[in-house]
Amino acid sequence: MSVQMTLRVDEELAAFVDEAVKAGEGSRADVVNRAIRRELRRRAAEADARIYAADADPELESDAYAQWAAANASRVASELD
């Protein structure tokens, strides 16, 4: 089920969406929905990184990665997009 929404965006964001539509990436709604889903995934990744870092054991190499991931979650997530 979908919900109709009316929203205002900056001109540069509207231009980006319209360019994506012209490039065949779907409708405006498709482009905006993908962007919102991407933001949801980014926030979930940041939350996971914080959880892993909270339980980190400094003796374990994988936990060292968890600490790094927590500190760099927003940068890493943005690179995945």
From TrEMBL:
Q: Which domain of life is it from?
A: Bacteria
Q: What is this protein called?
A: YlcI/YnfO family protein
Q: Which organism is it from?
A: Flexivirga alba
